[in-house]
Amino acid sequence: MRPLYYYQTSVVCIIPLLFCNIFPLAAADSNSNSNSNSNKSQSKRGLAYQNGAHKADNRLLLSPESPVAWYYTWSLWPAPEAANDTAAVEFLPLVHSTDDVANDDFGKQLDGLPASSTHLLTFNEPDGDTGSGGSAIEPEDAAKSYIDRIAPLRSSGNDGRTWNISHPSVTGSPRGLDWLRRFNESCWDLDREKGCPADFVAVHWYGEFEGLKGWLDTLHDFYGHTPSSSSEREKSPKFWITEMALPQQDDEATLRMMNQTLPYLDGLDYVGGYAWFGAFRKGEKANGWTGDAVSLFDDEGGLTELGSLYLSSGHGGNGNGDGNGNGNGQDGSGGFEPGKKGPPGDDDDEGGAASMYSASRWFAVVVGLVAAGLVAW
Ligand SMILES: *[C@@H]1O[C@H](CO)[C@@H](O)[C@H](O)[C@H]1NC(C)=O
Ligand SMILES: *[C@@H]1O[C@H](CO)[C@@H](O)[C@H](O)[C@H]1NC(C)=O
Ligand SMILES: *[C@@H]1O[C@H](CO)[C@@H](O)[C@H](O)[C@H]1NC(C)=O
Ligand SMILES: *[C@@H]1O[C@H](CO)[C@@H](O)[C@H](O)[C@H]1NC(C)=O
Ligand SMILES: *[C@@H]1O[C@H](CO)[C@@H](O)[C@H](O)[C@H]1NC(C)=O
């Protein structure tokens, strides 16, 4: 459809990885009741966490009052800002490459995660090439890793926890679908009994609301479940939209798209979660391709109208009461008005994020990566 979009998106999405500090793993939390906070229990809303973004912004998004109920970091490492609240906000680790799983520490890393972590994401945009920052994994290689190291975690993680696992999250494009088709073929070639079993499907979408609906339908067809009858719907794997935005449009169009999208996804039984791209401030390079209008924060760290909308009405489905006593939908922003900022903290490094995303720094990182031979294949 718009290959350039997806191509460049991969660049945007890998940026957090380039700055992937090795955070100490959050101590496993014995309180695994991930739904104890009523502000989050009915919410599908998630955070695509930008490592290196402003800490105060992340604290606001992850706060107990926020409807953000889960987050991921494009990596196996949780966010430091969430360390105190691990039971309330589920962390979804992401296996980025076949190297991640080949590493002997892979199992240990997963074991160290809070008990509330039960969903594992695999291979981010494997159909994107490394030259543009995608993970560029051949379907055959991905299938082999998946069967050898990932699928076994479904029945027993190394610490006895069972993981719900997603198929690789391809770009929202025909190229992505083609990759999934070849992945499936390889899976069945390697394991004629089970293929590559998955519990949910991670989805990426950049474009208009109507296009998102169409893409979800396309994936439903692909997985053999047309959502036309309720019995079929029940068989459907859950879809988690881990990246979505309307790129390169103005504030008004973007707000309209989000305003259509959130209630739609909230109302679909087969959608388990979704995360907007992205949690950054206007004027920073992380949104160089998507444009500024997708930013949840303004250039001073206050919520944009879009950010305010994302943090409001995060409860339940179609406007039915869910027992929370919380209004669904059009009842204002529930304390997250535009301009609201995250709480300041000791560990703030304000100003760092902006320069981190500067074009020259980014260029240096890419050159460094190439030089280091990390993209040798
Ligand atoms: C939920 O959010 C409200 C404000 O919107 C806050 O007063 C309440 O403490 C929050 N609940 C929890 C469990 O943090
Ligand atoms: C976590 O809690 C401790 C103790 O209450 C506090 O000192 C620290 O600042 C908190 N960390 C974050 C990231 O909120
Ligand atoms: C995990 O996946 C299975 C289907 O494979 C599903 O029945 C179960 O509800 C899922 N668990 C969660 C917590 O989503
Ligand atoms: C995957 O391949 C198997 C075996 O060829 C086939 O039966 C199945 O329909 C395929 N699934 C998808 C989602 O394409
Ligand atoms: C969002 O949609 C509702 C109707 O579904 C409408 O009342 C409201 O004005 C819209 N808000 C924005 C910001 O577009």
UniProtKB/TrEMBL annotation:
Q: Where is the signal peptide?
A: 1-28
State the SUPFAM superfamilies in the record.
Answer: (Trans)glycosidases
* Residue ranges occupied by any Asl1-like glycosyl hydrolase catalytic domain in the UniProt entry: 46-310
Positions of region (Disordered): 314-353
Keyword annotations for this protein, in alphabetical order, are:
Signal
A Pfam family (short name) is Glyco_hydro_cc
- Would the keyword Metal-binding turn up in this protein's UniProt record? no
User: Compositional bias (Gly residues) spans?
Assistant: 314-337
User: Does the keyword section mention Signal?
Assistant: yes
Top-level taxon of origin: Eukaryota
PANTHER family documented for this protein: ALKALI-SENSITIVE LINKAGE PROTEIN 1
What is the protein name for this chain?
Asl1-like glycosyl hydrolase catalytic domain-containing protein
Naturally occurring in which organism (per UniProt): Apiospora saccharicola
Q: What is the lineage of its organism?
A: Eukaryota, Fungi, Dikarya, Ascomycota, Pezizomycotina
